[in-house]
Design goal:
Layout lengths: L16 H6 L17 H10 L5 H13 L1 H26 L3 H19 L2 E5 L4 E5 L10 H14 L5 E3 L6 E3 L12 H27 L1
Antiparallel strand pairs: 1-2, 3-4
Helix pairs in contact: 2-3, 3-4, 4-5, 5-6
Length: 213
């Protein structure tokens, strides 16, 4: 019996928020991919899992979504559109596809501008910190933190460290010392790929032996 896939079972393989947001699709490389964000409630569960917003704030959004299911559905649609854009852009960076980066950059910049309009400075008593102003009825509020995370990813790290798993299409920041990490999860995608290539070589070898007999 196959294990039911939920936010609770979703593996977190990146240290970067925007990458983890993109990685809420099981396999970007397959047509039968599983989407972990099946409902707005799933999105809030993901936010809780990664502590994107305070539990109190997420409870407010959950009540609002239950009171306004139509608005919650529209918000989920927008959330998925934003996720698709981030996946396309980060993937293009990872593949060093400058043409695709240029095509998507205007849309990414519009998101960054909208996200920046919701930021504010707070004084904590000994220093200033950049925080987010959250309107009480903004069902998209947690998404803007992922947008800020994207800006940090692109400006604070070498672009060669931004990678895409060749097996599943998940994206991640390679933080290994030698910069040679290839898979989102070496124990899963890496091992599976090695096993598939081993089996393929074995089949080819058997086929060659049959042909030579």
């Amino acid at each position: 019996m196959a294990r039911k896939r939920t936010i609770a079972t979703l593996t977190i393989d990146s240290s970067v928020l925007c990458c983890n947001f993109v990685n809420t699709v099981s396999y970007w490389t397959r047509a039968d991919r599983h989407d972990y964000l099946g409902s707005y409630g799933d999105f809030l569960d993901w936010c809780r899992k990664l502590e994107v917003s305070s539990p109190e704030r997420l409870d407010v959004l959950n009540r609002l979504a239950l009171e306004q299911p139509g608005e919650a559905e529209r918000a989920l649609h927008q959330i998925k559109e934003i996720r698709g854009l981030l996946h396309g852009f980060i993937s293009a960076v990872a593949r060093q596809d400058e043409e695709e980066q240029a095509n998507l950059l205007p849309a990414v910049n519009r998101l960054l501008a909208e996200g920046s309009s919701k930021q504010r400075l707070l004084y904590t008593g000994d220093r200033f910190v950049l925080d987010q102003s959250e309107a009480p009825d903004d069902l998209l509020a947690p998404v803007w933190k992922t947008i800020r995370s994207l800006a940090d990813l692109l400006t604070q790290h070498g672009l060669e460290r931004i990678k895409e798993c060749p097996r599943c299409g998940w994206v991640f920041l390679d933080e290994t010392k030698n910069g040679r990490r290839r898979w989102c999860n070496p124990q899963y995608c890496g091992s599976t790929d090695k096993m598939m290539r081993y089996n393929e070589r074995k089949r080819n070898s058997l086929q060659q032996n049959k042909t030579s007999q």
